[in-house]
Amino acid sequence: MPTTSEQKSFVVPKELHGRPLDGALRTLASLSWGDARHLIERGKISVSGKIVTQIDRRLRQGDQIDLRPNAPRPKIGNVLERSALVYVDPHIVVVNKPAGISTVPFEPGERGTLDQLVAALLPRARSKGPPTSLGVVQRLDRETSGVLVFARTFSAKKILAAQLRAHTVHRLYQAIVHGSLEKQVFRSYLVPNRGDKLRGTSRFGGEGQLAVTHVAPIRRLAGATLVTCQLETGRTHQIRIHLSEAGHPIVGERVYMKNFTGRAVTAPRLMLHAAELGFIHPATG
Asked: Which of 11, 28, 108, 200 ranks highest by number of CB atoms within 10 Å?
């Protein structure tokens, strides 16, 4: 990622006309997909003088892109409805996360993240003072929607984390993927850099972390398939990587599309949703 003092400006050439901002920035500034997206989402990129935080903003030939790593993060107006709290008790809170909200802060001082929004909705221990902080047990990608659990006590956090490590937590996702996909199990070892600066399957046998995903079709769509994805393990971007490497990237995917040669189906967001979550309650059993 560019250093904090490195400012750059680019003019969008003819060949990048109509391209989304993250892809154009990746090309012009020689960045990875992840770095380009983080800069945009953190308000470090402006187009023709206006800060843009939408990674898929389409560009025009002649637009000026300014990269300012020192720019302050813009204020975030994320709002979470109380109906998003699926289950609440003194030990845990289960939330239905909307797409477009980060689970936890990516950088110091970031506001509007899910843990902060949930804490603000919960009853406070005192009539005055800030909301109680939540224990982070699991995370969902910013663009992924669905259910996840936060701990409200240190004991609950330890017990839930142990269940995750033991792979006894039930996690079922739904996704819309490109093409026609049959029922199968993906099993590979994931590394932070598979050779193209992206997370992916290791080329050297058992190097990396074991990742296992069970996939089954629900419904055939036009050029796509609605599927369920059940996790045995919970590695970063596991579902996205397995489906992409199999030639069936998730619709709305922007990072793991490099080797996809089929006809891309457009979508306003990543079509991935955490539909089911099951665990043993850390206090009641």
From this structure: 200
Chain-centre distance for alpha carbon 284: 31
165-210: per-residue pLDDT in tens? 999 999 999 999 999 999 999 999 999 988 888 899 998 877 899 9
d(CA 239, CA 235) in angstroms, rounded, equals: 8
The span from the CA of 197 to the CA of 50, in Å, is 30
Radius of gyration (C-alpha) of the chain in whole angstroms = 20
Q: Average per-residue pLDDT in the chain?
A: 88
| Straight-line distance from the first to the last Cα atom of the chain, in angstroms, rounded to the nearest whole number | 45
What is the residue type of 192? P
Distance CA(216)–CA(93), nearest Å, equals: 29
Classify residue 257 by its DSSP letter: -
Q: Is the pLDDT of residue 126 over 90?
A: no
Which residues are known catalytic residues? Answer: 141
- Partner residues linked to 133 by β-bridges: none
Helix (H, G, I), strand (E, B), or coil: what is residue 92?
A: strand
Residues 6+ positions from 123 with CB-CB distance below 8 Å: none
Is residue 256 classed exposed, middle or buried when 0-12, 13-18 and 19+ CB atoms within 10 A define those classes? buried
What residues are paired with 177 via a beta bridge? 225, 250
**Apex CA 27: angle with CA 23 and CA 30, to 5°?**
120
Dihedral sign from CA coordinates of 156, 159, 164, 167: negative
Q: List pLDDT tens digits, range 2-60.
A: 544 578 999 999 999 988 898 899 899 988 887 888 888 788 999 988 888 878 788 99
Contact 277, 149 (CB under 8 A): yes
